[in-house]
Structure formats: structure tokens, C-alpha cells
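To: structure subgroup
Subject: Chain for Friday's discussion

All,

I'm putting the inputs and outputs inline so they're searchable in the archive.
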Amino acid sequence: MNMRALFLCTTVGLAVAGCGSGTDVPSSPTLQLPFVTSQTSPVQFNDVQGVLVGTSGFLTFGASNIGSQAMTITTVTYSGPSAITLQPGTDKPLPATISYNDELLIGLTCTPPAQQTYAGTVEIKSNASNTPDATIYVSCTGK
């Protein structure tokens, strides 16, 4: 397990696929995210202070493959209010082949036009055996 994955497993302790010891690697492509989200518990942009109205906040996360077979991420899309957008491009062009312990970085920008909360979803489509259609709930509050 690389140090970044180990750090995420020990500090966050949450993932779509559990954090393993490095010896229990799944044989099929397996998606791992650095968090678990739900509609009631979304990933938040600057969740302590919010994002000042008229400025931008940024959020980047990795979609990792912890399976020994290559994972192919075919699409990454955002649905929701226009205050939140996918950052143009990712660190790899789609469809992206993600080898064991590698990741695709996904970036989002939130530019709130008013003092309110904006919520949307990021959909990741892949050949992962555990979550081929992953949904990540995101939220941004304008302050």
C-alpha cells in the first residue's frame, strides 16, 4: 500500500472499499475513495468557514484502484447547480486506465453567487467490481 493510501486509511478510515493491510488485494478492479458520502453527509467545500460569495473554493479528490487488475474510468460527470463545476480536465484523459494503487484526480470548483447552500453529485462510471456507478455527494455553502 503506498504512503498516500496508508495515510488516508489511517486518518480518514472511510472508503468505498475498505483499507487493507496490503496483503489482501482484491483481484478485480476495485474503486476506493478517500471518504464515504451520502445525501445527508456530503463532502463539503471548506466545511468550517464556507466559501465567500463571489470567490471560488476548490476540492480535489482521487478515485483509486486497490484491485490488482486495471480499472477503467469511462466518465466523470457533475449534476447540480452551476455554482459547482467540474474543473476542466483531470490528470488523465478519459477513458482512463488506472493500475493498482494509482488514482484519477477529480477537481471541482465552487463559486457561490449568494449566501446559501449548493448541493450536487459527481458520478463516476467504471469497470470497478465493487462500485461501477459511484455517486459522490458534494456541498458548498456561500458565506
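Points worth raising on Friday:
The chain is about 5% helix and 40% strand.
The radius of gyration is 15 Å.

D.
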